[in-house]
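Q: May I have one protein plus its fold?
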Amino acid sequence: MSEAFTVGLVQTNSSDVLADNIAAASQMIREAAGQGADFVLTPENTTLMSPSREATLAAALPEESHPAIPAFSALAQELGIWLLIGSLSVRLGPDKAANRSMLFDPRGQVAARYDKIHMFDVNIPDGQSYRESDTFRPGEQAVVADLPWGRLGLTICYDVRFAALYRNLAKARASFISVPAAFTAFTGQAHWHVLQRARAIETGCFVFAPAQCGTHVADRQTYGHSLVVAPWGEVLADAGSEPGVVTARIDPALVAEARRMVPALTHDRAFEAVPEGA
């Protein structure tokens, strides 16, 4: 049985200025480590919240020349922590980028990469429209990575609405699931807490969900409320609506306990699906 550890979630209000965002996130990562966090996570779009496809692609850089990667690698090594950067915009070609989570180990090495699978192509009733697929190439691979305390399943934001991905990660022996996000204020008020708690309960996993908050460029509003949720569904930490850091003590033994009480991951049954559109 793995020992307990402290997780730290960084809640940012990122802008469209790459260098400013790297500096702001780095300061809060240091704060989380200073509060004893062994594993620190930042939100989706940590380094860039751009108002348009053109601006996002202009600022997206390939991994080999992306200034955030050596900066966060060096920080993980300096602080001796595991560090998940919730997502970076990484250039893949002339007209597409990846929305990519990157996990750094305490040596500063990249331990895992995950490209967001589900694209947020939605018209929100508050009048905002989003078309992530215009800018980003969807990922095609679920990803897990081994931490000292258990296995981490990586997801990003809109993925949280697709429960099959989370069940797959749990069946791949994930004990923790990351959900870095930039949830809209409108959908967050209605769905954020219940979705994070549902994914934790369904999988018997801890959910670590660092989030963007506040008003961004072009008046984009994000919900905040970075959450740590236990496998039984209890909210262990909630960052509220302002930038900052929250921490929580994590006991990995609670994963086995929750799955023992409700062993739903062992109760799958084959069934004949209703045809789509029927």
Observations:
- The first strand starts at residue 5 and ends at 11.
- Residues 5-262 form a domain with the Nitrilase/N-carbamoyl-D-aminoacid amidohydrolase fold (CATH 3.60.110.10).
